[in-house]
Amino acid sequence: MERKKFLKSLVLAGAAGTVLASCANTEKEIKNMETSDGFKAGYIFHSVYFWLKDGIQEKEEKDFLNFFEILKKVPGVESCHIGKPAGTNARDVVDNSFSYHVMLTFSSLEAITAYEVHPDHLAGIDQYSKYWKQVEVRDTVLS
Fold it and tell me: Are 70 and 122 in contact (CB under 8 A)?
């Protein structure tokens, strides 16, 4: 009977090892995958949503857009995409109340960490924050 239990635990351990190895391989394959945009696992998507102040003038809004020109030139920024809310159907899970969205991409956590304290980034915030009433940031690392 003891031998039967021993053999059964060997089979279970072998099966568990196979499953774990296949999961590790899958995770490794995912980390080495590249998207059609050329982004790999480990890339950071830095999404920033801006709500501009009520009553902002057209001239002020155009000036605000210069902020993005500064940001995309900060070392470490791989790409910069700027947009406004899409006219998608209203749903409980959709928030189209923001004024602008910028998505910056970085190749690593080190790159975005350097960006966060870069003098041009900080100076841009100081110069253009007078135009917004709210900002929300969502950072995502690709896996």
Answer: no
- Report yes or no: 75 and 114 within 8 Å, Cβ to Cβ: yes
64 C-beta neighbours (distance < 10 Å), count: 21
Which structure tokens are listed for 47?
């999404």
- Alpha-carbon distances, residue 35 vs 27, 39, 91 (angstroms): 15, 5, 29
Asked if the model's pLDDT at residue 111 lies above 80, the reply is yes
Q: Supply the pLDDT for residue 51.
A: 99
Give the predicted TM-score (pTM) of the model: 0.73
**At 88, is the secondary structure helix, strand, or coil?**
coil
pLDDT band at residue 1 under the 50/70/90 scheme: low
Domain 44-141 falls in which CATH fold? Alpha-Beta Plaits (3.30.70)
Query: Residue-wise over 16-39: b if at least 16 C-beta within 10 A, else e?
Result: eeeeeeeeeeeeeeeeeeeeeeeb
Residue 8 has a pLDDT of: 47
Which residue intervals of 40-141 are DSSP H helices?
Answer: 58-71, 109-116, 119-128
CB atoms within 10 A of CB 106: 23
Residue type, 68: F
